[in-house]
Amino acid sequence: MTAAAKSLDNPIPPNSQLAQGHLLGIEGLNPLEIAYLLDKAEGYVDHNRQVDKKLDLLKGRTQINLFYENSTRTRASFELAGKRMGADVINMAVEGSSIKKGETLIDTAMTLNAMQPDILVVRHDQSGAVNLLAQKVDGAVINGGDGSHEHPTQALLDALTIRRRKGTLAGLTVAICGDIAHSRVARSNIHLLNIMGARVRLIGPPTLVPKSFERMGLEVHHDMRKGLKNVDIVMMLRLQMERMQGSYVPSTNEYFHFWGLDYEKLSAAKPDALIMHPGPMNRGVEIATDVADDIDRSAIREQVEMGVAVRMACLEVLCDQRQPR
Amino acid sequence: MSGLTAFINARLMDPASKLDAKGGLIIKNGKIREIIKGLDVPQVPYGAEIIDCEGHVLAPGLIDARAYLGEPGQEQKETMATASQAAAAGGITTIAAMASTDPCVDEVALVEFVSRRARDTAIVNVVPTACVTRGRKGEEITEMGMLAEAGAVAFSDGHRAIGSAQVMRRALAYATGWDLLIIQHPEEPSMAASGAMNAGEMSTRLGIPGVPSIAEVMMVERDLRLVEMTGGRYHAACISTEASIKAIRQAKDRGLPVTCSAAAHHFALNELAVGEYRTFTKVSPPLRSEADRLAVVAGLEDGTIDCIVSDHSPHDQEAKRLPFAQAADGSIGLQTVLPLALELHHTKQVPLMRLLDALTRAPAQMLGLPSGKLAEGAPADLILIDLDMPWRITESLFLSRSKNSAFEDRPTQGRAIRTIVAGETVFNLNEG
Do A207 and B134 touch (CB under 8 A)? Predict the structure, then answer.
């Protein structure tokens, strides 16, 4: 066991995924670990608002961002986080790489591993692909989103945003609305909010929010007005266009009519309810433009800001676990 | 004028409250105001118009959950005006219009069109249904939530089965958001496609390609699994085989939200009626064996079959005067569904109250309608039935624009002699 894991101010238990040097999902983390990551991140929020943002905590470390799926904000956020922490960062996109030439996931992992990276940030369209890859490499692996499984840093940045606005997570009622069935953001948030003592409601059409989620101890609502009643937080999810042409949902028109967030539906929530969205938004599909841009209610841009701080904290904690400074 | 109408000297029969008693009722402003057992003239309020029922059955108006009304698109076969006149003469006060029109009712504007045409031209209530899938193609689900808000009472692709299990699964699941009803035409499409009548000895003799009866139970059983998985409210329309009735009986025993209906021709005729290639007896699903027909009667008797429908399918001569397999499917039925049901009462196979239940309370409950019952405050949609009047079903009596009845020249017994919609008499045999 590393020295850091034993220190008093470090709540990471030896069997935790963090202690192994990976952040693959929120599931399995304990409340103290989450609070620890959030506390660390909190410190980087102010730091990131300074003119000089450069630190040297990860000086000499190599970070590879391996993205099998298109991404703008997550990749940029991880890249900035790594660079601000002082690491050397390279981005590998699937476009134009040997992956397009048919290399398997594990072969790519082994190849990259041979280059001795300290941190691999991986996004993949298949659930479980990041876990598989983590078994094959020596460096720290951060899940940047795998299929419909988990997107842990998104849940952490959402939690930080809520905590800064509301002071706490425990006892809040959070509504997550939209395509829950296919959303890794929803799954990670459900885990995190459950762990931290918030109440979670899921809202959406039955095809996208099956009743089976009730077995996870959550409330499922198909009527958005009922589901939003007295909630503290409204988390909207992005709806993939291909799911709205009659397979899961008949049309964008019907979707917005029943599950799009507008002021009329929002009026059921608490007057100071916070509106969140992981982006990118489909304006007029899952959220009305005026709601999304409401500076008093919407935390959407703040979420992006918190993303960099949270990722800096994750990089720091994982590197500490592997090789304490 | 007090605006009151009193029906006296009637045999009140109301399946919803299990009422079967001598009495009468008073209506005002299109609603039932009071039900009085043993009502006679002294109890009638001053100034009320009095209608003497002469001991006949006064029941809720019939609700037909499945009829094709021609509009929009096939006005040469039927219109809401002509269909509603036929319905009134048949004792039907509410018709659920099938969505399989041209264009089919898969958009809000079409639901509104059906409601508007009904209001402007029909003399009975017409409530719209809408398609489950866009263009009835069986691929993409329709905007069910908004269609329901616009007034669609149920969802069905008409005489076309939803063949894809995945699409049916999604439709049933999506519909649970508003507790909407999905109506299936239960026929495995790949097995039914080439057939024109029931597969069996008769089809073999006639040399007509057959639809095997298992094509129905295969689809019913598949759908029941999906209902169990999704919790969606499901109705199997016009079931015709012993096996599928058994499957639904078992599903109901398991507590699934399932209902089914039988068309009058499936308990009044069997495959022998096809005779010498009579295309008026070509219906979908086809007329079945005598064993199947008896199973339909038994299913009605024990309530496994919730509703009786007309499955009114008007076709002009161009669609029916063709070689059997090329002729269109369907028989008209609005004027004959009640007398054919009453035949089962006269033969003592099904109690009268159960028959009326299958024509009033059951479809009303299934479609979420306020009518179908004799209750204070309910719409004054009523019929007076002469249970015993003998008559012959003849073409000259048909008010529908099309005359393709599978029951032409059939002697029968009993009929509606007066039909009242929202307090207004829309059919009166004695003044006809």
Answer: no
